[in-house]
Amino acid sequence: MRGAATAELDAAGIGPDRLRGDYLLCRDLHARHGRTYFTATRVLPPERRPAVHALYGFARWVDDIVDEPPPGATAADLRGRLDAVGADLGRALSGREPREPVLRALAHTVEGYGLPAGYFTAFMDSMRMDLDVTGYRDLEHLREYMYGSAAVIGLQVLPVLGTVAPRAEAAPHAAALGEAFQLTNFLRDVADDLGRGRVYLPADVLGAHGVDRELLEHCARVRAPDRRARAAVADLVEVNRGVYREAEPGIAMLSPVSRPCVATAFRLYRAILDEISAADFDVWSTRHRVSDARKVAAAVPALARSLLARSVPRPRSG
Question: Model pTM greater than 0.85?
Fold first, then answer.
């Protein structure tokens, strides 16, 4: 795997040893925590992969500060850590050298692709929300959180992937895809999120089926669903499928060499909804995932399409 990582850095023209080490750290974070995304990224041309690793590695690193705190850490401790990261991020986005390795790789990617600073400050705002907000009244309230935690990640990656349509036309679809992926995570990880004191499923949808936090906690405790909880999850699966439909037209707007990567991630992540549906909307007795065999089955033809797209001569400019 190190040989592949070195080849990616070489292809992207990333030279200084310390910066290469920073990108390798981000790549390791991506490989460990985002296996479905990482599989899809392997379909990208090698020179585009390090930037995606930097963007995902940054998001995963900050998310882990909130979701995987050290034993005994208080909300004040976590807020202080986020504030320190935010200050270092400010240095990175203003052209000064940050202290953290992940942020050095991120700063290099931000500069190389001209990414707006607002995407990253919005992400930090959503991470801070996780320290205070434990539930969401409706989908619009949840989307306020998902803009910073998910939609902006789609927007960050868009310039790396490249587009054949005007970027402003592709952007809403990229943002919707980020939301679609995160909604799938929320449905799959209800029990895990409850363990952190949070419910991301909108309260109005839950309430329409007679579901409250107490019932969700009961389902998590006994590792079995209640019929009312199944019905609420079924409704939200349909909402999630609708967001995937909003996102799907954006795939054709991407650069041909990038489409197989995003199409692979799209199919694999949407397939988690198929697994949830096949289990009669039980998200408590097991954590639904796409098998490694299915990932390989999706990635191999996608890689072939990507290689074919790379072999097509580009039109000469001018």
Answer: yes
